Amino acid sequence: MEAKLCPDGISYVGRTGPNCEFAACPALVDKYKDWKVSTDEKQGITFKYPDSLGTEFVLPNDWPPIITISSGALTCEEGESITDDGIPSSVVKKVIGDRTYCLESGGEGAAGSVYIYSSYATTKSNKFITVDFTLRYPRCENYIEPNKSNCLKEQKDIDLDGVVDGIAETMSFE
Questions:
Q1: 43-57, 79-93, 145-159: which has the minimum mean pLDDT?
Q2: What CATH number was assigned to the domain covering residues 31-173?
Q3: Which of 90, 115, 128, 144 could lock onto 72 through a cystine, CB 3.0 to 4.6 A?
Q4: Alpha-carbon distance 158 to 172, whole Å?
């Protein structure tokens, strides 16, 4: 018996029929089919991003993310620091999917919310890429129930790593 690995990297099919040909692989599911397409002709890049994060409380301050392409290798010096503007910042190395990222993030408070900037750096196709955005996180304690609990849950459950990795996965270069 023979088996063929399908392009999804998960499924296998065997031989079938009178000519003993491999059966058809299951159709690939484009999990990003509902995402918007952005093209930056100056940098020669196209990528997809979700129109919204599907959140009620955590909201993008600037969206879609700003993508920057440059040359160089990914280096990640983990630690905490204070930016030139006096904002606390941290750098952590993360593996998301099959990519390694260096995530720099920091934030500052204003009028009942905290604005957190995130800069995810990685490489793809021998290019150094950064994905930058800022989100507004409200102070959930300012809400009454059930909004307070819903806000706290949303802040805990939001999958920014998955969103950023999806953006990186959909990137293509001219």
A1: 79-93
A2: 2.60.120
A3: 128
A4: 26
> What predicted TM-score, i.e. pTM, was given to this entire model?
0.81
**Which residue is it, tokens 């099919």?**
13
**How many CB atoms neighbour CB 107 within 10 A?**
19
As a whole number of angstroms, the distance between CA 61 and CA 56 comes to 13
Q: Where in the chain is the domain with CATH 2.60.120?
A: 31-173
Q: Largest alpha-carbon pair distance within the chain?
A: 72
153: left (phi over 0), alpha (psi -120 to 50) or beta: alpha
Rg (CA), the chain: 21
Chain position carrying tokens 């300012």: 142
Summarize pLDDT for 41-57 with one digit per residue, the tens.
999 999 999 999 999 99
